Amino acid sequence: AAKEAGRGQNKAFEPVMLYSRQLRRDMAAELRQGVGRDELFLDYQPVVELASGRMIGVEALIRWQHPQRGLVMPDDFIPIAEETGIILDLGRWVLRAALEQVARWEGELALEPDFKVRVNLSAMELQRLDLVDHVRQALTETGISPGRLIIEITESAFVSGGDVEMYSLRSLSALGVGIEIDDFGTGYSSISYLRRLPVHTVKVDRSLIRDISADPGQRHFVDAVHGLIQAAGMEAVFEGIETLDQAADLLVLGCRSGQGYYFSRPLAARQVADILETGAVLPLVQAPANSTGA
Ligand code: C2E
Ligand code: MG
Ligand code: MG
Ligand code: MG
């Protein structure tokens, strides 16, 4: 239930916070080894143009295939990676792996010029003075244009951001990399910072659109949030779209892009390649299970 209250809030109730000290120590050690052992991999969730269902990009999402514990999801190990500093190595690996994947897609298939890859960054990574050099180097070595990359950073990281974080964001932006606020609407922040930051896009948290179809008041509110983002000179992306009704409501409000289980779950790189290859729009239409094909 704590999770339902929204990501970023009520962290104390997240399962990972209930892990024993010993388990957290074990997992940190295993994670450190896992990074060097190919236990980590990325799934990619399509971001779509709402009006057409066309895939206009993907968000890279990390997973950990643990030899004994099985598949571990990021909410269950990113906090441990952050508190131990492992996130720095992990973050560099994610960026590199995502860009290498885009380079493969670019080589094998024709990527639309507006196809973007989104990579999540933890606040701690923004505090590193060498972040921008790493990003620049990863882009150069993979041959990916900076305009294809969008860095996602949660609202709280922006709000608590100091000089180094601001330097990182401005430098990345100057490089041509897109900057996006993730989980917008979950923090307790003031909105006055919106216009002062080098931010291009805002990803509205799924908690804001959950009841949009059942509740006209919420629809009105989301409309206003969308207007606010546009007034700040930014583009809005809506996450957590789970139903056709939600997608249709957002479209009526003039919202242009989004992602969520309705369009597609996070996919393996191979599945993304299939969509790119066929130009299929999302959601993919499944043949009925009992179809005779006649
Ligand atoms: P996020 O960046 O907000 O990513 C969206 C999360 O919502 C993903 O969970 C995604 O699978 C899930 N999601 C997508 N569509 C829907 C939907 O329609 N309904 C619902 N209920 N959920 C949806 P995931 O993959 O478990 O990732 C959780 C969080 O872990 C991410 O939230 C992000 O904050 C963090 N994370 C993931 N990968 C990385 C990474 O490479 N680096 C860092 N620093 N954090 C990461
Ligand atoms: Mg994200
Ligand atoms: Mg998010
Ligand atoms: Mg999140």
What tags apply to this protein structure?
294 residues; alpha/beta; eight-stranded mixed barrel; 40% helix; globular; disordered N terminus; binds ligand C2E; binds magnesium ion; EAL domain-containing protein; transmembrane helix; coiled coil; membrane; transmembrane
Please, could you describe this protein's structure?
This protein is an alpha/beta fold and 294 residues long. Helices cover 40% and strands 19% of the residues. The protein contains eleven helices and nine strands. The chain has helices at 21-35, 78-84, 87-108, 123-126, 131-142, 155-159, 163-175, 206-209, 216-231, 244-252, 269-278, and strands at 40-49, 54-66, 70-72, 116-120, 149-154, 178-184, 201-204, 235-239, 257-259. It has an eight-stranded mixed barrel with strand order 1-2-4-5-6-7-8-9, surrounded by five helices. Helix 10 (244-252) links the parallel strand 8 and strand 9. Helix 3 packs parallel to helix 5 and helix 5 (131-142) runs parallel beside helix 7 (163-175). The longest helix is centred in the N-terminal third of the chain and has 22 residues, at 87-108. The model is unreliable at 1-13 (pLDDT under 50). Bound molecules: ligand C2E and magnesium ion (3 copies). Ligand C2E is lined by residues 45, 61-62, 73-75, 78, 91, 94, 120-122, 152, 182-183, 206, 239-242, 259-261, 266.
